[in-house]
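Work Package 3 (structural annotation) set out to generate three-dimensional models for the target panel prioritized at the project kickoff. During this period the team completed the workflow that converts sequence records into discrete structure tokens, so that structures can be stored uniformly alongside our sequence database. As a representative example, we reproduce one entry of 234 residues exactly as it appears in the project archive.
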Amino acid sequence: MNALLFDVAGRRRSPATLPGYHRGRSPRNKGLRYPADPPSVEEIAAVMRTAGSGAEGARARALIVLFWRAGLRISEALALAESDLDRTRGSILVRRGKGGERREVGMDRWGWDGLQPWLDLRTSSPVGALLCVIHGPTRGRPWSATAARAQLRRLAASAGVRRRFAPHQLRHAHAVEMAREGVPLVVIPRQLGHANLGITSVYLQGIDNGETIERVHARPAPVIPVSGSPRSMT
């Protein structure tokens, strides 16, 4: 019988895992476009609390930190090695970003503190990808994007988050928060690995109308001569 029909533990494999199964099939989300809808800080914190205190929880929180506090894409986060991290400088080396571009990004101290529990546990696994498989014969190998996304969905559902909770939404949250904190607009595209400001502007759509209205409403009054009146300015 064909050995491909069974995994290394001798269990029958799902047809979806066999080579060529997806050939010619369109992805279920093909053509769908998701609006900028970043989760709130409270929602992200709720998901991180729901992850639990075990190794899988520490790994999930580390993944969320890399999206939310460093703005990485899922492919970039899952390709990281331990040697790509430099806590002293606060930098993370992305060896191959979108389009094959290499860049360094920053991460704040809170993000490094959130990553540390997983780094401590990671030392007991074989050398390899930073975010790796924890159990079984593939222990130490890179964690798959499919499995990572699935865990984020499960945690969000358990935490009661009633919106799409995906890597890209967390990248949106990273961009929006930097803009709100006054980070210069020229810095944000470099952090995210964007080729131009037009792409970054889509991410900043997460700044809602309420914030726009509040800021415009709080503008100072125009300076006019004491002897004049607003009517004389028209």
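The mean pLDDT is 83.
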